[in-house]
Amino acid sequence: MSVFPSWNGYQSNDIGAKKPMFEMRKNCRINLGNNKGCSYKVTLGSDSNCYMLEGLNGKSSSAFRIRDNNGGAVAEAKRKQPSSGVVFRDDVLTLVVEPHVDHSFIMALVTVYGLIRYQI
Questions:
Q1: Is-above-0.70 flag for pTM?
Q2: How many CA atoms within 13 Å lie on the side-chain side of 57?
Q3: For 66, what's the count of Cα atoms within 13 Å in the CB-facing half-sphere?
Q4: What stretch of H or E contains 75?
């Protein structure tokens, strides 16, 4: 049994799927407390095809970046800051996604991340 559980994502159009589309697993550095050293590794089929979700330092707890296996940023989510001065809750985000990335896949990762962190 693993200390850090994993979450599996399945395609909705494949009802009887036995193999998940992706797996998200929490990675933490033991010496850092309060999830500050935690990131999430997302694996698509093999370890060579993966993404990392990592919190943005100095930002709200809901701000994070998604990197591909080459370390390049493919998406970034931040707490929405409207110009009117109204303060939104932590679950209202601005999401910037690179054009070459599957946007529905990124939304699945954002949703799982929010559920894991009890923010949605």
A1: yes
A2: 1
A3: 26
A4: strand 73-79
Nearest-angstrom CA–CA distance, 62 and 77: 8
38 — pLDDT class (breaks 50, 70, 90): confident
C-alpha span between 9 and 31 (Å, rounded)? 30
Q: Does residue 36 have a pLDDT over 60?
A: no
Contact 74, 68 (CB under 8 A): yes
At a CB cut-off of 8 Å and minimum separation 6, what does 54 contact? 39, 40, 64, 65, 67
The count of other CB atoms within 10 Å of the CB of residue 33 is 9
* pLDDT higher than threshold 80 for residue 63: yes
Distance CA 73, CA 54 (A): 10
- What are 41's two structure tokens? 């590794």
CA dist 24 → 79, 87, 88 (Å): 22, 31, 28
Distance CA 79, CA 64 (A): 10
